[in-house]
Amino acid sequence: MRAAWTILKREVYAFFVSSMAYVLLTAWLLYSGVVFYMLASYYASQPLGAGAQDNPLTMFFGQTTLFYLPMLVFVPLVTMRLLAEERSRGTIEVLMTAPVSATSVVLGKYLASVVVWIAMWLPTLLYVWLTSRYGDVDLGTVASSYVGILGMGAYYLAIGTLMSALAKNQIVSGILTFMALAGLFIMGLGQFVFGEEYREVFAYLSIWGHMEAFSRGVIDSRYLVFDLSIAAGTLALAVGAVRARGRELSLASPETRWPLYNIALLLALLVQANYLSYRHYDRWDWTEHSIYTLSDRTKAVLGELDRDVEIWILLSEAEEGFAELRNLLARYTAETERLDVHYVDPDRDPGAYREVAQRFELGAMLVGESQLSDVAAVVASGDRHWEVTRDDLISRSFDPFESEDSVELNVEGERAITGALVELMQGEATHVCVTTGHGELSVTGSQRSLAGFAQEMRRENLELSDVTLRGRDELTVEECDALAVVGPEVAFAPEEIDLVRAYVRGGGNLLLAIDPVVNASQTEFVDLGFERMLADFGVRLDRSVIIEPNPALLPAGGGHPLGPYAVVGWGDHPITQPFTGLGLPIIASEARSVRPASPDQAAVLLRTSEQSYAETDLRSLAQGAGELGADERDIAGPVPIAVAAQAEVTGREAIDEDEDGEPDAQPGGRVVVIGDASMLASEYLQEATVVNRNFASAVVGWLTERDALIAIEARTIESHPVSMSQEDVENLFLRVVVLIPLAFVFLGFAVWWNRRQ
Hints:
The chain is built from 26 helices and 28 strands. By secondary structure, it is of the alpha+beta class. The protein has 3 domains: 2-288 and 728-756, no CATH class; 296-397, Glutaredoxin (3-Layer(aba) Sandwich), CATH 3.40.30; 428-712, Rossmann fold. The two termini are 35 Å apart.
């Protein structure tokens, strides 16, 4: 290694003291500056929000052919003189007679070319700084892009080193390197030409596909293994070529046959390493907001897959969002081997599309190059399948409450595909019965409905249906996996309460979301009939209304302490574990306090702030007497607003007896009580910056023992994308096209002048 280090230093010094080095660097920076300026100009002409994930930097790092074409020229210019010049001058013999091995010679010269490659790209860090002046720049994505550039350079330069070792002069070396790199680049384009059976192979060989992942902030172990294995293999061949210099090649000679055997073995090892890497790989998300990281919910669902599943993507590769979808599905397949993804382009392969449409009875047809079906994906397992529409895959929307240059990315594709997997895995839907007849929020049929909640749960293979308790003798677990009472305004009859109590004690699960209901004169709270029943289950339902005076938790511009307000105090329970430390609130309004009768009987899920309190004197509140403030009769904050309990059957209700003949407590159903029905209102479930939807899903998941629903789904990411005006682009031209290349012209002149002196 000491000899390789000596050769490395000599080569680097020889390069940077030559005028040709600065001609090469100036030409490269002039070209890259023009390309960056063109991309920035194009980007500035696009509507705001089009660059929430993309910006001029991600486009520059591998999103266009302009990135790859100069590599076919600059890499040969860097590597063509490494060994070919030594051979043409005859100095290779002198070098090899010294106590220097062929490995040291090849490695030293190759590493010198890597240093030059790094020197070419270091000035582009100025592009990152300039772009950051116009919006958010994800430094993790930038770092990932440079990792990809280093990996690409590693094996491109290794190929150039091999060609330099084989050629007798620099010109031949440069031509051979250009032809080899151009051939590899054209071969990679086969992913856009050939059918699905060969597409994956060509996509794996495509440097375009590699850099597309790196430029989006995704580090894929397959691509790193490919780059490093090709570099190692070609360098080993270069060492063999240097050792074989001047020898006559004959298959009859053992000195020729053994190297050929070694080459065959090396190729076999490279193929095997890449095959294993392709089958077993990891992907690391380096983006700032982890937008390419699968949610905990999706990972839980994929971990529970017990059968093979096929996903058919029926989109043209030219459609917006296709690249994001491909990246998304790559994360799915990296997580489990149960998934097999097929891409069918209706424009390029209409015959295959027709076969898929007929197989799954999509009812689609082709008119010219446009297909009329709205189905963009089909998730299938066995004889069952689930359809996903275009609108379910990905969308972008502006947040009207944020600044004008703020845009939200709704990663709906993950939610839709994971929901389809849940549908296939669960088989029959889980049934949640929603009571009616007491002014509750019903599934359908009134303005106070749970239509939004029902739609969200239907994505998770849960069906909500109305149920009337009046006149019934029994409510069984077989009929309802869970019972929901949401926002009643009229008291339940005693026989209805007994029916609910028997249902829970028989193993049924209960969701009770109950607002503070007052009488017509607004002087007293109405007893809805659940207080005594909940006391049996360890839950205390207070006759109160919560006051939240903390201005930081009220809507911007001021709000009423009764609500709506944000709740950020999470308890310790499986339902709340995904939300702890997340930093996102849940919205409540006109809520009542709900407390455990004792810590052993129930667990708190949500608490309001320490400044809040629960008012128990409705008369003073209605009359507005004095300033808001807690007294000795009120419940001091933080006030519990939701609890969870496991009901028990005790005493005479016990089903079994222990060994001593004494009644043995038996577990009943699960109970969640929320002191606010508005948490489940559609307006809050659709709000992307709060977790009402996730919390509702987690509650139902815990009640029905479906752990996948408790995990957090894909988040909505708020970003401030790069925004450039035409004036900004003109200023950028001066910096990247004129000043940066000009600086290297002066640097080269200074080196030349110094050598002349």
